[in-house]
Amino acid sequence: MKKKSMHSWGKYPRIENRLLAYEDRKQCAELLQQSNALIACGNGRSYGDSALSETIVDIKPHDYFIAFDEKTGILHVQAGVLLADILEHFVPRGWFLNVVPGTKLITVGGAIASDVHGKNHHLDGCFSQHVQAITLMTAANEIKTCSKNKLKTLFQATCGGQGLTGILLDAKIKLKKIVSSTIRQTTIKTANLLDTFAAFKKLENHRYSVAWIDCLASGEKLGRGIVQAGDFEAQPAYGKLRYAQKSKRNIAINWPRFVLNPWTVRAFNALYYWWPKTGESQQRVSIDSFFFPLDALENWNNIYGKKGFVQYQFILPLENSLAGMTEILEKISQSKEASFLAVLKLYGPANSNYLSFPMEGYSLALDFKVNDKVFALLDELDALLVKHSGRIYLAKDARVSKEVFQQGYPEIEIFRAFRKKHGMDKTFHSAQSKRLDL
Amino acid sequence: MSYVLILGAKSDIAKACAREYAKNGYDLMLAGRSISELNDFATDLEVRCSQKIELIELDILKTNSHLSFYQSLSEKPLGVISAIGLLGNQSKAQDDFDHAQTLINTNFTAIVSLLSIIANDFEQRKSGFIVGISSVAGDRGRKSNYIYGAAKAGLSAYLSGLRNRLTSSQVHVMTVKPGFVATQMTKNMDLPEKLTAQPREVAQHIFKAQQSHKNCIYSKWQWRYILLIIRSIPEFIFKKLNL
Q1: Which CATH code, of 3.40.50.970, 1.10.645.10, 3.30.200.210, 3.40.50.720, is assigned to B3-238?
Q2: What is the mean pLDDT of chain A?
Q3: Alpha carbons A226 and A190: distance in angstroms, whole number
């Protein structure tokens, strides 16, 4: 089998690997004998090295829908099914996923392994909280089905476990009924961080909410942004449900490095901030433009050029959020390294999975183009993060240290012990799990 | 039931076509050898699209069964897509005529046998469409796969003639010439990423082109121009090239 260098969505890091595929469960079991550092990969949309390893198992070909129960809304699919496929076929029939992240171009397996969350986390929690059952191939070559009630520890380790507990084969997920396919959106332009936090509080009864922050603004304007909230409309807007595929633009080539510089990014951010009306306004928008605005730009990661980018996403406990976020935003603003699309969100309570990212508090996600200075800056941000008891999101991470990581995840030792006990640490590893001793 | 018949349904392009047609509201009949292997796939289509999917056993190489196969269909299809193809092994085909014959029969002779039966029916009913998946390999013989290429060249010529004959009967015949496609057939080949299509792209292309009555498509479209260049290389140069 030939070796190839692969990267995830951030294009950093690149790791030489063998890509393996399997046809059936028997072959899947055989694959597990071939390497002691093997990880499953879905659509390659995690940002860093959580799905990179010397041996990668491609689960994307396993994209069959197995069954759907109209009465309960429970959909049984193989792990390689894309969320986009589910929406394409089920929105017109009046069903929606309970939790969608900022892209629909991820597999169900990936959604479970990263226990993804969306704009409704404050009300509906993570993806795993709507998963009825998961079937996986374990390190011992056994097929196990786990759920909240059955093999609960395996379920809690698998959801958010970054694929380190086994190869996900299929899952049963609960869909929710929708009566329209349009969103009534409220937009609030805020003047600073305090104002932004207040807007989140004000909008907390809206099912979906998120904010974009101008991370280059400083001083009195620090933390200014656009807060958007909304929910599905109660009536179908055009007489029926529909899910039209919007035309996509493709960023076909890597942009030269000079295109994104502090001035162009500042201009973009200023324009983006200036665009919506001052104060509060309302719009009707489609599912895709509300939930997945970036999916309209195919290969948008090319914007950051050949060397790629790292996304830094962290969360701070609610009581530390204002102080911590202020300090971190000040540091970012001074550095002038940040780029556009800093995304802020207020989260609801944590779930009981060992490595799920969300907890009650504010999370910020932003992109940094890879260059010589950026890693030193991220280390400084890590120090502030530790000071405010925050945690890093593994699905985005490519570089955090073991120390910074584990102070944010109090249940990491349970996860480590569970992996050891079941021999998972002898079979499943990613570059990330080796770095962080997962 | 008005449905589309897909021949060679176990191939990746056929499966992608099945998804595309089911998504657009067509019922399907999927034909191939050991077709029960597609049971899970058929369920997948039914769950996705709520279309009716039937599986039917067909060994394309048993040409004497073709007539009874087609007659056994209680209702005749709206259209047929042939995705039958076998790449085989060129060097083996050079040494072993049995293998060469299998390639020629699978890629050409057997398809001609079945499509002729279907074409006669469509001609009589004055409706229907026939999509034949040929290959860019049929556009000019190259030493790396000329037995396969020769059979595909035959298929392309057959489809072209069929189109000429059936146009006056309002039967639409479309030739599809895929270039590199990332499928089981090519999984051990090192293909250039930019020129390699995913089966899904090819299927979307086929559906759109069939609906708008295109005659001959290359997929990806770039291959039309690549083959234009390849075909226009003078033979005295071409014969020395390592292609």
Answers
A1: 3.40.50.720
A2: 93
A3: 6
Would you call B222 an interface residue with chain A, using a CB distance cutoff of 8 Å? no
Task: Determine the residue type at A431.
Answer: A
- Listed by start position, the domains of chain B span 3-238
At A364, which helix (H) or strand (E)?
A: strand A361-369
When CB atoms are compared, the residue of A21, A67, A88 closest to B47 is A67
Provide the token pair at A19: 């890509």
- CB–CB of B54/B237 below 8 Å? no
Chain A residue numbers touching B49 (CB-CB < 8 A) = 89
CB contact under 8 Å between B41 and A64, yes or no, is: yes
What is the pLDDT averaged over residues B72-94?
Answer: 95
Res A3: pLDDT: 66
Q: What are phi and psi of A331, to 5 degrees?
A: -60, -45
- Provide ipTM, 2 decimals: 0.86
Of B44, B50, B190, the CB nearest to A64: B44
- For the stretch B14-38, pLDDT in tens is 999 999 999 999 999 999 999 999 9
> Residue A85 and residue B49: Cβ atoms within 8 Å?
no
Amino acid making up residue A143: I
Q: In this structure, are residues B142 and B233 in contact, taking their beta carbons and an 8 Å threshold?
A: no
How many A/B residue pairs have CB atoms within 8 Å?
24
Grouping H, G, I as helix, E, B as strand and the rest as coil, residue A126 is coil
- pTM here? 0.91
Q: Tell me the pLDDT band of A190, cut-offs 50, 70 and 90.
A: very high
- For residue B242, what pLDDT is reported? 87
Contact A66 B44 (CB under 8 A): yes
> Under an 8 A CB cutoff, do B44 and A85 touch?
no
